[in-house]
Structures are given as C-alpha cells and as structure tokens.
Amino acid sequence: MNKMNIALIFCIAVLCNSCNNDLIEYQTNDLKISIEQGDDYLHDFPLFLGIKKKNPPQMAIWTEDLQGNYLSTIYVTHKIATESWQSAGGNRRKEALPHWCYSRGVIYDDGLYLPTKKRPLVDGISGATPTKSFTMKIKPNNELKQFVVKIEVNNSTDFNEYYPKSAKIGDANYSGGKMGSGQPAVVYAAIVDLTSNKKTFRAELIGHSSPDGTDGNVQSDVSTLTTALHIIKQITINVQ
User: Fold this and answer.
1) Residues 63, 147: contact at Cβ < 8 Å?
2) Distance of alpha carbon 233 from alpha carbon 41, whole angstroms
3) How far apart are CA 151 and CA 73, in angstroms?
4) What are the angstrom distances between the C-alpha of 11 and each of 5, 123, 152, 166, 172?
5) Element (DSSP H or E) covering residue 78
6) What is the average per-residue pLDDT within 164-180?
7) Which of 6, 10, 124, 197 is most buried (most C-beta within 10 Å)?
8) How confident is the model at residue 142 (pLDDT cuts 50, 70, 90)?
9) 213 by DSSP, 3-state: which?
C-alpha cells in the first residue's frame, strides 16, 4: 500500500474530553472510540524537592491491517510527537511507546524510531493528553472494511518491585532509568469488522511493550505489572 493510500485511511474529526459529547455530530459508519480512565490514569510524576504533579499517560492510537501491517496513526500525545518531555534529562524516552514507534517504521537521524523536535508529527494527529476519559470521532476510508485498532498507553516513573528505579542498563527490567517508564507500556487491540452486524467492538489487553524500548514486540505475560493494568478501565469502538 503506497503512502498516499495510507494517509487517506483515517481522518480525525474530533477529540473530546471536556466538551459536550452530545454536540458531536456523527454520520453513518463513523467510529466513536471511547477511552475510559482507570483508577491509575493520573500518576504522581516527580518534579523537584519532593513536589509531584498529577500526569496523564502517554498514548498512541493507530490502525493495522489484519496481517499486522501498519496503516495510519489516528492520535498520539504531544510529548512523544514533538520530543517535549519534562525532566527527561536528555533521555529520548524510547521506552515510552515502543510498539507504536516500531510499527510506524520511521527511523530518525539518531537511529531511533520516535519523533524529534526537528521532525515532529503534524498537529492533526497529535495533541495534549486528555486528563480524564475521552472520546474520539474518526471517519474510515470507505474501502476499508476490516482492520485492527491498537492503543498503547504508558505512565512515566510508575516503578514497582519488578521494574525498580535502581535497574541498570542491560538488566531485563531496565525501563529508562529514574525518569523513565517504570512499568512498560500496555497495549490493547480490537478487530473492527464493518461487514458484520456488530456495532460495538471492545479492545482487549494483549500485553506490554519492551521495557527499555529496544524493540517493538509485545509480550503477553503481564504478571509483573501492577498499577499499569489500571491506567485504562475500558476501550470501546462504536459504529455509528
């Protein structure tokens, strides 16, 4: 599939978390993606002198075909889209959303797969992280009838006993150091079939990404995760 076709697969119409959802107008076959926050959606991020800030997670939403080939990014949070990390200490944060980064397959000047300040993603698919549950309206290309919607989510510095702050580079549980990810990003997926009679598709947890961001694989064993499993409560995709 050429780049032009990929660009036309989806266009974002609305990202809404504080506005009135009742005011959004939907047309037949528009999709409504609903992200419902979990108990650990907001996370205490350390600033300085013991001061902490409630931070929402980093997130990417994109589509793939049924064979797992990347199609198009629907939405990604501003920090990773523009390399505007807070208190990252020079860390490019390759461990933040590695499954999405590698799925895109775009290599940047430093050999990494995530956007840079010089080569940010366009504003049309990036935005500030919603601070609570939100919905997104998208309009699929008329020719696309079956596809996968993936969502990758990560809270920075949410360390636990399996992914401690003290882990060193090269350790299996290293996740970017003291200002890194802590627990790795979690990945959800939903197969959407517009030829079926179904109107609602639910994204299921399929695993977690590479802890240190050195590859784009998804590991199905989530037994080492704790609060990361409660960032998102539920993700549904409704056909209008």
Assistant:
1) yes
2) 9
3) 10
4) 12, 12, 19, 42, 38
5) helix 78-82
6) 93
7) 10
8) confident
9) coil
